[in-house]
Amino acid sequence: MNQDYIKPDNWSIIEEGFDAERVKSSESLFSIGNGAMGQRANFEESYSAETFQGSYIAGIYYPDKTKVGWWKNGYPKYFAKVLNAPNWIGIDIEINEENLDLNTCTEVRNFRRELNMKEGWYNRSFEAVLKNGTEIAVNVRRFLSLDLDEAGVIKYDITPLNKDAKIVYKPYIDAGVTNEDANWEEKFWEPLEVKKGTNEAFVTAQTFKTHFKVTTFMHNTILANGENINVSPSTIDSTVDKVQYTYGTIIAKGQTSTIQKIGGYTVSLNHENTLAGAEKVIKSAVALGYDTLLQNQIEAWAKIWEMSDITIEGDVKAQQGIRFNIFQLNQTYSGKDSRLNIGPKGFTGEKYGGSTYWDTEAYCIPFYMATKDQQVARNLLTYRYNQLDKAIENAKDNLGFKNGAALYPMVTMNGEECHNEWEITHEEIHRNGAIAFAIYNYNRYTGDYSYIPEKGLEVLIGIARFWHQRASFSKDKNQYVILGVTGPNEYENNINNNFYTNYIAKWCIDFAAEQIEKVASEYPADHKRVMDKVSLSAEEVKEWKKVADDMYFPISEELGIYLQQDGFLDKDLVPVKDLDRSQRPINQKWSWDRVLRSPYIKQADVLQGFYFFEDHFSKEELKRNFEFYESFTVHESSLSPCVHSIQAAALDKMDMAYTFYLRTSRLDLDDYNKEVEEGCHITSMAGTWMSIVEGFGGMRVKNDQLHFSPKIPKEWKGYSFKINFRNQILKVAVNHNETTFTVDGDQDLTIIVNGKPEIASKFVQIN
């Protein structure tokens, strides 16, 4: 834990007291989104101290040229940037002819932020004394509409406390923005058109290179004590990429002046004419009005929480943590559009770039399968299917592979690889396995096999072809090996025979071969269509199987464990508990050379294989491998604590499971890795959900049935969650005395609890 200023609360994220040192961290933590767009919790008014301004639009990106001092064949030509979008929230404010700026006020008191996760709004309030002696109270509420997802709303209230005040509002929209994270300090936006109306304005701009067109809009209403005073702007200032209106008002001491600002974006992904689209959005939002828009927001979030909420009794910090994670996941991805995906920072920052990593398939899909309609998860699979041609092109052009072998990118926006670190781009090839595993996991959980003959089989074939060609035969070992890789543990590069990579490669080939046979038997028309399309023969599949059947896995007979890679035991095996705390995190304290030579593990690697393929190993094998590798794991990846929490629970190491749960659930709230100001770790938040459902709840799917082995941390009085399993809603509630299972509807559901079959109808109780 590196920060502890967020107040414990079951439903809200709360900060009290103004501290300029934590402004950027709070901008991340109080971010809001609605699946179509999002923004950091920047101040609407001017702020002259350090800040990280950021607004983002789903699906909009820029191919920033890769910045390296040297070049190698196959390097990605660009690193895709999640673009800082034009700013629509800005409102410069003057009070008695002095600019409102919390950095220059003589006093700021009663400062409070609240992110109300239950109702989906962000509120900021404070009292301030300006240099001219005017004292004011300010309350600002902002939300991004879930129903009208191209629009956001700001209600900014100012109450003079010690004298009458002349208040000047200067709302603006500005496309002249830059990215915090840019390689060459290039401009990303080209202004096209500015349009001004009575109380509304529009700036249309497009991205250079990718030519996404965006119209940013605003509509302003000025109120006094809640009543519209129908004031028009006294001046209108504009440039090629910015429009700013000026409204002057006089308000008596103790009375309240308000500006309501509606703003947002319409994009060429969804509109042929973005300006006309923006005018239509404003008309709809204004017709509804602030109060109705807010009430609709509250009702929309109530529907989301009805299915996705997890309750925890007796531990407010744990409860706050899981709801923060679930809230951010629902803000980031709604599942409506198969062109979109789940970026690692969501709408909270720019780091990492790209809209998708292997995190989506390995961690996020289980959450969306269980808390949404299965179509949402299917859309995530379709996203990868639609980019299969690019994956084949990537393997062919960058790695020299042939015959339709597919290597999915480590980082992508449109299917092209856009990660610019060589050891990740070319070596962290295990991401292919996660994409195949997600297809298997989707079928296992939903029972919807139709995706495989329709789309998934082509993906599985491309991936199997890749592994077949990537492996090489070792005469010394008389087995197939995979050389020069980076496993999930990115603190090891260019290693040979990473256990996880080799294991998932073998599994991918076996799974693809099984599905080819199944589709041939049960979907002959689809089988013929796919085989003709990819030109696959039975002889080729036999060649794949030779590799899978004779894959090499490094082991230690003495320790009874799989080795993370060849030579792992040659390292200086000093466990993490003996590492001086002053040396942590090692990725910020050590040279990269020292990190690579150390035994320290960034995240689950061998244990990632045990997580995916738990049924392939005995409990004793898991115990030996867990106890060995966890002792060297520094958990400096956001994806690490969740897997370890699940496995600790499976091994009845409940104190450890609870500690890992708190770390994953409060990773950003408590800033464990000293980097939250760069944005939140959105994709790992799905792992937090898994820590409860799969960890403490022990939920698994085996042989088309749900299995549970419920456990509860001693720190909790009880917990509950819901899952949508094959269109049946099951609620699980656990306390120290019993577990209850409740099924919505009239259809019974057979479940396996602690190895025994139970019939869950309206209610079943297990003591």
TrEMBL record:
Residues 323-690 form the Glycoside hydrolase family 65 central catalytic domain. It comes from the Bacteria. Pfam families: Glyco_hydro_65C (PF03633), Glyco_hydro_65m (PF03632), Glyco_hydro_65N (PF03636). One of its GO terms (molecular function) is hydrolase activity. Keywords: Hydrolase. The keyword Hydrolase applies. Gene3D superfamilies: 1.50.10.10, Glycoside hydrolase, family 65, N-terminal domain (2.70.98.40), Maltose phosphorylase, domain 3 (2.60.420.10). Residues 699-757 form the Glycoside hydrolase family 65 C-terminal domain. Residues 14-268 form the Glycoside hydrolase family 65 N-terminal domain. Belongs to the glycosyl hydrolase 65 family. This is Glycoside hydrolase family 65 protein. It comes from Flavobacterium ginsenosidimutans.
